[in-house]
């Protein structure tokens, strides 16, 4: 199938896959026939009505979304503010690379859930803990990708600029950062995904105000339809943030699409 046909029918294909997914979900729920194990699409739709019809539940839902989004945003911004400079220094200076790289690899290999008890001892059972976990999970993805991008900047770009007497600041802003921008954007896209993961995991474990905490509470009460409804909300938030980062990627790295290999 040619790429032009796929692009033309992209959204109909997407709509069709959603219909197929809902149909399979409905069939599996009928086979399981246990609302405490797997709620079907109809009961999940009713859960959304319940979520907005009951004022107390609606207020909790809105507060939870605000808390989760704030933790994701602050954790991600902090990860960007620290991850990009660290990645640049690792990529440019060999001594920094040798000192920091082993620790980055060790921390990056640790599962998200392993950070939770450490952070719990540092910050207690608060929303601040979710922010810290979000930062710790996201920052290493950003560091590694920025480091890779800066390290692989071609010498044919850097050496002539130095030979012509470019200032150190201009070397970074005019040569190194533009050349490593594709890797930086990949790091940001991975970082936002990891930030979401960190916040939700922390909220579930700490059972604090947030979508993760609501999921834990509803699952604990065997309110499976509400649990699935909240999981879908988190999925939609994740998709929206990823599409936002993808849009920024296309705008910032505008030359990448024109030079990329055409897909079949």
UniProtKB/TrEMBL annotation:
SUPFAM superfamilies: MetI-like. It is found in: Cell membrane. CDD domains: TM_PBP2. Keywords: Cell membrane, Membrane, Transmembrane, Transmembrane helix, Transport. Its main location: membrane. It is a multi-pass membrane protein. InterPro entries: MetI-like, MetI-like_sf. One of its GO terms (cellular component) is plasma membrane. Residues 65-245 form the ABC transmembrane type-1 domain. Gene3D superfamilies: MetI-like (1.10.3720.10). The keyword Oxidoreductase does not apply. Pfam families: BPD_transp_1 (PF00528). The chain crosses the membrane at residues 12-32, 69-91, 103-122, 128-147, 195-216, 222-244. GO terms for biological process: transmembrane transport. Belongs to the binding-protein-dependent transport system permease family. This is ABC transmembrane type-1 domain-containing protein.
